[in-house]
Here is the input.
Amino acid sequence: MPEKQPGSKDIPPAGVCWKPAKEYKTGDWRSKRPVRDEEKCTRCLTCWIFCPDAAISWDGKDIHFDLNYCKGCGICAEECPVKCIEMEDE
Ligand code: SF4
Ligand code: SF4
Here is the structure.
């Protein structure tokens, strides 16, 4: 049986996560979530470039938010040139 890996809740206060975030679902730290107006979005990828985590992906046609990893920092909303991302309370 594979050894159970610790989750983000197992990391002590001021602890350091020494493995890549993709091995842990860290989105439960978030208090706000990005919500995009798809009509207004120009698919410029600015949010994808600026997201400090790997929470925004590009499939060649559109972007997608992965809320398993989004921390709700709001950088994507701040940097979006057409302001089509709103940060909404969880
Ligand atoms: S920065 Fe704004 S306009 Fe550009 S892809 Fe992201 S959400 Fe769309
Ligand atoms: S809120 Fe922060 S972590 Fe979440 S998608 Fe936007 S930039 Fe990335």
Summary: The chain has one domain: 25-89. The two ends are 36 Å apart (CA to CA). The chain has two helices and four strands.
